[in-house]
Design brief:
The protein is an all-beta fold and 113 residues long. The chain has two domains: 1-36; 38-113, OB fold (Dihydrolipoamide Acetyltransferase, E2P). It contains no helices and eight strands. A five-stranded mixed β-barrel has the order 4-5-6-8-7. The protein has a three-stranded antiparallel sheet with strand order 2-1-3, with no helix packed on it. The mean pLDDT is 86. Bound molecules: zinc ion. The site of zinc ion (ZN) has 8 residues, from loops. It comes from Clostridium magnum DSM 2767.
């Protein structure tokens, strides 16, 4: 833990970017304001994934696309037993395993406590 994910908000048009872009995809501006990506998200869609790469300890995982309150959509791993489109989840950043040598930080979405 201790990792934080950021979105990059264009200082001219306000478009959010994640991951970071050098140039705003909407207006071409090159300056961004860093915004922490945390908190409540809404589940837009999800898929159940079998045949996981080596390194996962489960037979399947859910991956979902969620929307932050600022309108940015991102994808990540769902730690929810019965996902439903439209449900509110909490976003955190954690280690996502991909293969045996390449853990990386990514989004994990879990049920609100
Ligand atoms: Zn812009």
């Amino acid at each position: 833990m201790g990792e934080t994910m950021y979105a990059y908000k264009c200082t001219i048009c306000g478009e959010f970017h994640h991951p970071k872009h050098c140039v705003c995809r909407k207006c071409g501006n090159r300056t961004f304001e860093q915004v922490t990506l945390e908190g409540e998200v809404t589940l837009l869609t999800y898929t159940k994934v079998y045949n996981l790469p080596e390194g996962y300890m489960k037979p399947y995982l859910y991956f979902g696309i969620v929307k932050f309150e600022n309108g940015l959509t991102v994808s990540g791993q769902l730690e929810v037993n019965n996902p439903a489109i439209g449900m509110k989840l909490t976003s955190k950043v954690g280690i996502i395993k991909e293969g045996t040598n390449s853990d990386y930080y990514g989004f994990i979405f879990e049920e609100k406590k």
